[in-house]
Amino acid sequence: MKILVIHGPNLNLLGSREKKFYGKTTLAAINTELASIAKKNQAVIKFFQSNIEGEIVSQIQDSRKKFDYIILNAGAYTHYSIALRDAISGVKAKVIEVHLSNIHAREKFRRESVIAPVCLGQIAGFGKDSYRLALEYILSL
């Protein structure tokens, strides 16, 4: 099983940014935990982070024949990026949308996800464990 984890804009600042919403854990720590879980389950996992929408779209498109699943935290792009939605629709890999904070309990503009309808599911509000829960679900299949 091959899994791609994509971290969107501002996630490179985890651990120092709005800890009330995003916690104290760094992006590197999240990746290390996920890599450990994947290795124990003999799954291949790759990580990518970008603050640039087009780079994320390209990464999704490039996954076409390389990955079975994508765990995607699209950050703010979740709420308005039709380009990401179209990229997700155009690949075979199943995508799980994740968010550290509960986007449904925050500002009104954060409550709508334009990518959710083309994703396998959405996990939000469990901090760094949102990523782990997505990975564990994939590994259980």
From TrEMBL:
Q: Name one GO molecular function term.
A: 3-dehydroquinate dehydratase activity
Q: Which enzyme type, at the first EC level?
A: lyase
Catalytic reactions of this protein: 3-dehydroquinate = 3-dehydroshikimate + H2O
Pathway the protein takes part in? Metabolic intermediate biosynthesis; chorismate biosynthesis; chorismate from D-erythrose 4-phosphate and phosphoenolpyruvate: step 3/7
Q: Where does substrate bind?
A: 73, 79, 86, 100-101, 110
* InterPro entries linked to this entry: DHquinase_II, DHquinase_II_CS, DHquinase_II_sf
Q: Where is this site: Transition state stabilizer?
A: 17
> Example GO biological process term?
aromatic amino acid family biosynthetic process
What are the UniProt keywords, alphabetically?
Amino-acid biosynthesis, Aromatic amino acid biosynthesis, Lyase
Q: What is its EC number?
A: 4.2.1.10
**Pfam name, any one:** DHquinase_II
Question: What residues sit in the active site?
Answer: 22, 99
Of which family is this protein a member?
A: Belongs to the type-II 3-dehydroquinase family.
Instruction: Write out the function statement from the record.
Output: Catalyzes a trans-dehydration via an enolate intermediate.
Q: How does it assemble?
A: Homododecamer.
Q: Could you tell me what this protein is called?
A: 3-dehydroquinate dehydratase
Identify the gene encoding this protein. yqhS
